[in-house]
Design goal:
The chain is an alpha/beta fold. The protein is 30% helix and 26% strand. The protein has helices at residues 47-61, 75-78, 95-99, 104-115, 120-128, 199-210, 226-240, and strands at residues 11-14, 17-21, 28-33, 38-41, 67-69, 88-92, 135-137, 140-146, 149-155, 165-169, 175-183, 215-220. The strands form two sheets. It has a seven-stranded mixed β-sheet with strand order 1-2-3-4-5-6-7, covered by helices on one side. A five-stranded mixed β-sheet has the order 8-9-10-11-12, with helices on one face. Helix 4 packs antiparallel against helix 5 and helix 6 (199-210) packs antiparallel against helix 7. The longest helix has 15 residues, at 47-61. It is globular. 49% of the residues are buried.
Length: 244
Amino acid sequence: MTVTWEDLGWERLADGVGRCRLPVWDCTAGLVVGAGAALVVDTGSSLGEGARVRAQARRLAGHRVTHLALTHPHFDHVFGAAAFAGVEVHGAAGVGAVFAPGGRGREALRADAVAEGLDAEAAEDAVDALVRVHREVDGAYPLDLGGGRRVLLADVGPGHSGQDLAVLVPGDPAVVFCGDLVEESGEPQAGPDAVPARWPAALDRLLALGGADALYVPGHGAVVDAAFVRSQRDALAARFGVSR
């Protein structure tokens, strides 16, 4: 029996492209299906959540997940990554240093997760098991998933974090996975690793990447259009005193 996106609680955005909204933090996980290859975007907030995302992605794709893109190094997006053993992992330039064993980045991830309500043992397990990022994208990197399915990974930050990666899936419509550079379900959050002065410019790059007619998938909340992203860009510029 063929499983549909809706059967598993996923939202189909275009042919072979969809996402789900994970519970608790309303974090987006995305999936792009090619011929014999598949890309997952972000993994959720725990090893268990990551395992569920991978299992559902495999069912929807009809074959194994081969690639994982991490939009930025915050716990609710990366703590499920260790459930993707054997998968090629991509992130923005510099993300490997955040994940480095024994580094302050790992401790900051653990502390933030616990402060936000994640079980301390689950946070410790996820930090201990964080995967190595195989490819750090500086600029843009094209990824061929087979069957004519190509995506573009783009380092569009910094902004929400020091390492913001966007994923462009060309098509009609084009789909852009934005990470937390864009949030729909609440005001964008600027934590200690945010670079507020450069966030509006990151959204300019995001809009140039996707264009006027793309679907923009925020890190949290409903899918939005270019007008929403542009409005959020202007609000952030005003909020942080950045000249337009």
